[in-house]
């Protein structure tokens, strides 16, 4: 009788354990499914706030700085708000070496500044879209972003040291044009950058270092040859292919050949907009004999 009772109790215990194990397994699987649903939604830009850490700023009401990203997946659009705070800054090293970011990256329209090394080593980003409010790019902010092909810097005022160092795929744009909004560019800012051309259109030169263009193999175009664009940083050995005012053949010096080319363009009425910008010394909107004479004067002065 005792054996039958023990056997019955053993069977009942086995059944209970089996049911409990099955329920726990189902609950665990359901929980894992729930977790997966959260992460699957993340790349679509939903419910992303929980994957960012941030600090509240002191420079404005209800604004914050993103300090890091903790999610398993990533949206290519960084949110403009985290909870009730507007994102105005991305902090130092916030996304450094985060290779979950792939393709084009759109930054918040409210963004004012990008901190030092903020996206350094993000090797899968192919383009950056900045808003008109973004004024400052920190030191090494995009260093080693080897897949970036294009970025807009139209409204940026300050670029830090080595900001775009090693951006070796930046061939998706022909030229970056800096207007009078740019104020300063740091040391080796474009070293190893594949950007074909950098152009400055403002008569007021931004502050640069003697090695700002060191390691940059593209062309730098400056609008005029005067005190604003003089010195080693602009016309020294570090700059490859600088177009000085009057240097129509682009050989780095203003000489008699440039004057001859101006006369040829004048005779044939064949000057391009770019050539007019470079060699229209008297700034009357065309290339003519007076420009040729002025170029000869420059040549004579510098000889």
Please sum up the structure shown.
The protein has 303 residues and is an alpha/beta fold. The protein is 26% helix and 17% strand. The protein is elongated, with a radius of gyration of 30 Å.
Please characterize this protein's 3D structure:
This protein has 303 residues and is an alpha/beta fold. It has a domain at 38-171 and 183-194 and 210-217: Leucine-rich repeat, LRR (right-handed beta-alpha superhelix) (Alpha-Beta Horseshoe). The chain has helices at 2-41, 232-235, 256-268, 273-279, 289-302; strands at 52-56, 63-69, 81-82, 85-90, 103-106, 113-114, 125-129, 136-137, 150-151, 158-159, 176-178, 184-185, 197-200, 207-208, 219-221. A hairpin with a 6-residue loop joins strand 1 and strand 2 (63-69). It starts with a helix and ends with a helix. Residues 1-46 have low confidence and may be disordered.
What keywords describe this structure?
303 residues, alpha/beta, Leucine-rich repeat, LRR (right-handed beta-alpha superhelix), nine-stranded mixed beta sheet, three-stranded parallel beta sheet, 26% helix, elongated, disordered N terminus
């Amino acid at each position: 009788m005792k054996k039958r009772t023990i056997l019955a109790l053993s069977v009942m215990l086995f059944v209970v354990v089996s049911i409990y194990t099955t329920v726990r397994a189902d609950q665990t699987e359901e929980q894992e499914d729930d977790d997966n649903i959260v992460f699957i939604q993340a790349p679509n830009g939903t419910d992303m706030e929980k994957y960012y850490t941030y600090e509240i700023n002191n420079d404005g009401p209800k604004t914050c700085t993103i300090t890091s990203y903790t999610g398993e997946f990533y949206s290519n659009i960084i949110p403009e708000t985290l909870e009730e705070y507007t994102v105005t800054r991305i902090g130092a090293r916030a996304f450094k070496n985060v290779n979950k970011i792939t393709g084009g990256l759109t930054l918040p329209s409210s963004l004012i500044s990008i901190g030092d090394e903020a996206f350094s080593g993000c090797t899968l980003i192919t383009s950056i879209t900045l808003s008109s409010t973004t004024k400052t790019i920190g030191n090494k902010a995009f260093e080693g972003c080897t897949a970036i092909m294009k970025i807009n810097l139209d409204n940026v005022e300050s670029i830090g040291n080595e900001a775009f160092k090693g951006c070796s795929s930046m061939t998706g744009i022909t030229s970056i044009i800096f207007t009078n909004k740019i104020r300063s560019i740091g040391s080796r800012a474009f070293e190893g950058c594949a950007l074909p051309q950098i152009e400055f259109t403002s008569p007021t030169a931004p502050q640069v270092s003697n090695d700002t263009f060191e390691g940059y193999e593209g062309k730098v175009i400056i609008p005029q040859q005067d005190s604003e664009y003089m010195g080693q940083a602009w016309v020294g050995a570090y700059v490859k292919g600088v177009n000085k005012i009057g240097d129509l053949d682009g050989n780095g010096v203003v000489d008699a050949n440039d004057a001859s080319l101006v006369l040829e363009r004048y005779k044939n009425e064949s000057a391009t907009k770019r050539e007019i910008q470079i060699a229209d010394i008297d700034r009357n909107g065309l290339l003519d004999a007076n420009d040729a004479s002025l170029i000869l004067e420059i040549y004579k002065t510098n000889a």
